[in-house]
Amino acid sequence: MTTVVLATRNVGKLREFRALIDGWSGLQGIRIVHVSEFPDVQDVVESGVTFEENATLKARAVAAATGLPAIADDSGLSVDVLGGCPGVFSARWAGTHGADQANIDLLLSQTMDVTATMAAHFVCCMVLSLPGGAERIRRGELHGIITRNQRGTDGFGYDPIFELPDGRTLAQLPAQEKNQISHRAIAMRAIREDLGDTLT
């Protein structure tokens, strides 16, 4: 049995990761744990300016600290009219990390005068880092628009204002459906083959 550490303490991400991995066949020899099970591992400062840099920083640090393969992601929302922001600052856009409603409120306030459709996409960069130094980097994107009609109670982050082409927001999707189409699911499926190739 090979243990792989998810380098995140975000409860929403952990829930999505586990749901995605639990449904995979052919990887039964892999046990997924999260970094909270290693109290001596310090939080990694996300000092990068891209999703790839931040994900790599976290994966490398956790792999080095635990001696185990680690998977980390950095993800966020990119809004065209804001020049790609909030981007890597998505989780702390309003100043406090993980203040979902405050982040939504600030983004909508910043675009208050915009009357055109606001194209946006979620980005997830995922990195698998092995203790010996080998790495795999994968990326997933989900495209939609920003809606001012916040709705839905599932999901987290900007999900209630991210509208899909069918008119629903991500927060209106059941978890099973979201896990088929999300940016994180796309990146995770891309890295699935890497897990199989390198760890089994």
TrEMBL record:
Q: Where does Mg(2+) bind?
A: 74
Which GO cellular component does the record give, naming just one? Answer: cytosol
Q: Name one Pfam family in it.
A: Ham1p_like
Cofactor(s) required for function per UniProt: Mg(2+)
Q: Which UniProt keywords apply?
A: Hydrolase, Magnesium, Metal-binding, Nucleotide metabolism, Nucleotide-binding
What enzyme category does the UniProt record give? hydrolase
Q: Supply the name of the protein.
A: dITP/XTP pyrophosphatase
Q: Name one GO molecular function term.
A: XTP diphosphatase activity
Domain of life according to the entry = Bacteria
Tell me the residue numbers annotated for binding substrate. Answer: 8-13, 75, 156-159, 178, 183-184
| Note accompanying the cofactor annotation | Binds 1 Mg(2+) ion per subunit.
Give the enzyme's EC designation. Answer: 3.6.1.66
Assembly behavior: Homodimer.
Similarity-based family: Belongs to the HAM1 NTPase family.
Alphabetical GO biological process terms: nucleotide metabolic process; purine nucleoside triphosphate catabolic process
Which sites are catalytic? 74 (proton acceptor)
**Which reaction is this enzyme known to catalyze?**
ITP + H2O = IMP + diphosphate + H(+); XTP + H2O = XMP + diphosphate + H(+); dITP + H2O = dIMP + diphosphate + H(+)
Query: PANTHER family given for it?
Result: INOSINE TRIPHOSPHATE PYROPHOSPHATASE, INOSINE TRIPHOSPHATE PYROPHOSPHATASE/HAM1 PROTEIN
State what this protein does: Pyrophosphatase that catalyzes the hydrolysis of nucleoside triphosphates to their monophosphate derivatives, with a high preference for the non-canonical purine nucleotides XTP (xanthosine triphosphate), dITP (deoxyinosine triphosphate) and ITP. Seems to function as a house-cleaning enzyme that removes non-canonical purine nucleotides from the nucleotide pool, thus preventing their incorporation into DNA/RNA and avoiding chromosomal lesions.
Q: Which InterPro entries match?
A: dITP/XTP_pyrophosphatase, ITPase-like_fam, RdgB/HAM1
Organism equals Allobranchiibius huperziae
